[in-house]
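Note on ligand handling. Small-molecule inputs were canonicalized before submission; formal charges were left as drawn, and no protonation-state enumeration was performed. Where a ligand contained multiple stereocentres, the stereochemistry in the source SMILES was retained. For zinc ion, this procedure yielded the string shown in the input block below.
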Amino acid sequence: MVKRGRKVKKYYHVKRLIPVIPKSREFKRNLRNELDWCYAAHYVDSAIKTAYSILNSWRRNYLKGRRKRNKPRIKRKFARIKETLYVFRDEKIRITVKPREMYLEFDLSKTWFKKRVKGWDLGELILKENKLILTFRKPLEKERVTEYIGWDLNKYSLDGFSPKYGWIRVDLKKLYHIHRVHEIKRKKAQSRASKKPSLKPVVSKHGLRERNRARDFVHKLTTHLVRVFPKAIHGFEDLDKQGMYKMSKRHNRDIAKQNWKMIIHFMMYKAHKMRLVDPRNTSSICPRCGEKLIKLRKGQVVKCKKCGLTLDRQFCGAINIYLRMCGFPPSSSVFYHVVIKKMIPKWKTQMKGGRGVTTNGDKTDDMLSMNPERADVDATQGVPTYPKPLSY
Ligand SMILES: [Zn+2]
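Structure output:
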């Protein structure tokens, strides 16, 4: 609607329905009695519990506007079977369906994964329509864990810091590339499909393939990280991606490519231990004095206004995450003990000649003032990586 060359916005007032989910004990009891149940009694409780959790999650998302009004439906049916509700004996699992009447039995003696799960405890089972999912618990190793690694997730790389390993850089360019390639392919397919509707299934196929490829990459990456640092506690930013979606469209698309959540999610169950830290200002405050940092060289290098500390932005993020996960506030003594003292020998072995510690090499105007005692240490030549960069 256009009036005198000006756009006039129209507003509507709509009443929004707020779903109420009855939670009283009485309601639940009646519900349990109403459901005519011929299977073992515990399934009904589990079913009600699952239904409640689905409804609650739908309600939460609906109130935030992320779901529509139609009620959630279960597409893939499943039943959870707790450890107390099945018997595992002689390499056979026996699940009660109807007590003293119907049982399901699974023979594990010839399964391909037998060797892999040797010595592990069987956990909760998930029974699906055509398969049974087994979960295993690996008994904790007795050794004490003292290794912490703080990880900073970036567009093209995953940067980690720990006093033991120094700066660890993992290349994520391939992951970015996967999404970029599919984005271009998808655009082409979409424009073709808009002219020829019969091609629409091809478009949806692209999304699936992209997701699978990204997932495969992230699986390999996380498995590798866990293998290389088996005893470490990994620290990540507690990213709420949805909160980051407020910025520009261009930025959105880049963030969507990151699969950051996927990486964190996979690490969560693969890694020995994980810790999530508050993501605020991890790459914008100085790890030594806590002052704001200013960006140099298109934001690749950051410099502290107060103390002059100059670092690679990603490396700085990793240090900040590391300090945060250990509970250290920004302080120059902590920074000296944790970062400088541990890093200097590594810098020295890695780098030859030159003066001044700069993160990005060649120019000396961005001199790092983080080595008050030893001026002969040089952290130049692009990106120092310790140990060797894990490349994919
Ligand atoms: Zn500072």
